[in-house]
Design goal:
With about 280 residues, the chain is mainly beta. It is about 10% helix and about 60% strand.
């Protein structure tokens, strides 16, 4: 009975990993964090606002205008085994800002943990740079655990008063994990955000994992009234579309997003953000 149960757990874990991988990704796939970016299909490198910037483009940390904390929860494809959650905190400084985050993905018997610290600074009036260091920790029941470290580097620039451009390289140091020295995903991403007619924002990103075809992500956000934001977006490779909504109540913002993968179904995400100017 004992061995039968362990075999079933391993089969279940393998199924989960296959479903999650989509293209046989290794551990620590670069999932979009935060319901706000998810609602824009992850097209957020050129916008990089809020605590999500720490994990998407760390140069956005330099634009922090107040102490901000955020909590995130998502259930990819409706599978509890793939639960993703995290908390992050921003703290502004005179010439930039600092931040930290903790992310969890999966649950027993397979769980990823990521501890991140980042900083961003203003190098010129319209140019920002930032970096984030990550400690990756992987734990698989009955197989043990392993850890490694990675680093992201990002740049953000206000090209004009209504156009912002960003670029980020994730896992710049090409970290590897485990006895088999499996390389973690390394991604180069660039994006532009345009505000053609406030309060409408349009974003376009291109993400290139070094091993796979490039992804194009397009997003939009519109605030018909001050306390409400509507968002949508689409992505290629793999094809997805997303939509979301944000609600403000004083210093508190609640965001919800849903994204649809053509083969794997729906992913629901929610974030709660508190900001103090």
């Amino acid at each position: 009975m004992h061995y039968t149960r362990r075999f079933a757990e391993r089969c279940g874990m393998l199924l989960v990993l296959l479903l999650a991988a989509e293209r046989a990704f290794p551990a620590f796939e670069r999932l979009t964090v935060g319901a706000r970016p998810v609602g824009m299909a992850g097209a957020y490198v050129g916008l990089a606002q809020g605590p999500e910037a720490l994990l998407i483009n760390p140069a956005g940390i330099a634009t922090a205008s107040g102490i901000t904390g955020s909590a995130f929860y998502g259930r990819p494809f409706g599978l509890k085994e793939l639960d993703a959650s995290g908390v992050s905190l921003f703290y502004p400084l005179r010439y930039g800002g600092i931040g930290g985050a903790v992310r969890l993905f999966g649950r027993s018997p397979y769980q990823e943990q990521v501890f991140s610290l980042g900083a961003g600074m203003v190098v010129l009036p319209h140019l920002y740079v930032g970096a984030t260091a990550h400690l990756y920790h992987l734990r698989i029941a009955s197989y043990g655990s392993a850890s490694t470290a990675g680093a992201d580097l990002g740049v953000l620039m206000n090209v004009t008063y209504n156009v912002r451009w960003g670029v980020v390289v994730s896992n710049l140091n090409r970290p590897r994990i485990g006895d088999c020295r499996e390389q973690l995903p390394q991604v180069l991403a660039t994006g532009v955000s345009v505000t053609p007619a406030p309060p409408l924002v349009v974003t376009v990103d291109v993400h290139k994992d070094v091993r796979y075809p490039a992804e194009v992500r397009i997003g939009a956000a519109y605030r018909p009234v001050a306390p409400l934001a509507l968002r949508c977006g689409l992505q290629t490779n793999p094809g997805r579309f997303a939509a979301g909504v944000g609600l403000w109540a004083g210093i508190v913002r609640m965001d919800y997003a849903v994204s649809h993968h053509y083969d794997l179904g729906l992913t629901h995400s929610v974030s709660l953000t508190v900001g103090i100017e």
